[in-house]
Amino acid sequence: MIPHPNPPPLGEGVYEKRRQALLKEKQRGRYIFNIKEFIGNRPVKDVTTFDLEKMKNILKKRGKAPKTIHHSLSLVRTVFNKCSLWGAYTGGNPAIKVQYPKIADNDRVRFLSFDEVKILLDELSKLPKIETHDLVLMAAFTGARYLEIASLKWVDIDLESGYINFLNTKNGRSRTVFVPVNVQNVLSGRKPVDCSPDSLVFPTNQGTIRGEVPNSFPEIANRLFNQGVSDRRQRVCFHTLRHSYISWLIMSGADLRTVQQISGHETMTMLKRYSHLTGAYLQKAADRVAAAFDADCKDNVISFADRKAV
Known about the structure:
Elements: H1 10-22, H2 25-39, H3 49-61, H4 66-86, H5 114-124, H6 131-142, H7 146-150, E1 157-158, E2 163-166, E3 175-178, H8 181-190, H9 216-225, H10 239-251, H11 256-263, H12 275-297
Helix pairs in contact: 1-2, 1-4, 2-3, 2-4, 5-6, 6-8, 6-10
């Protein structure tokens, strides 16, 4: 197959066209954090199956989930298909020959208690730089994903009203989250006096988006929580903070529809992993109703607690 005489780079040209056409910010996140450094600025004709296998293996070594790697490879495959459709490329699709990782049931089940989060924050507060502490606090008390926090700009935050607009979300739908006083105080302390509304809340030293969670987080999380834990579903990572916040919401009595609005899950099905928590809450609610009934009618009926099977 003869390649297009002037094929555009896979990244800033072709990818941006496709992203704007689909209006999907989650593809943008996959591209920035999982693809760009490997093939993002190379001509389409120069990308090979070997390059994608190498990308896959490096992402795996970095601890990326099989599902994340699978979606990233699928995105590259789709970009090549689009290039062919637009007439920008007439060669083969190197992503087709890549051996995709198998996707098992890798939903994380571990979440942190309030005390564990306090211990984690105390340890992070001892670091020379406060960035990791503030990122963790934001995730633990907003339920936001790392990319959503890393992409935050000051224009997205209303400190007076106490809410944050998350615009760069995984499913492309913006959402508003009200934050507690502790998060408001941290944000107030971080905000420069004369900052631009378009400046990032958690920038790198160069003023760009932080592509990865700071190394200090996994180092401390591993020491505190992951010693001897090999099952990745039980290991604490940055995303555990989001999982913990959603679990706290459910255990506090929030219904799943409210949780969906706060967390930004695209469908109710995605909240199925929390169903055991919902069941436990409903059991407690039923017990409270029975206890209230006993207290109110104790002189007239046999108590539920004292009733014996007939």
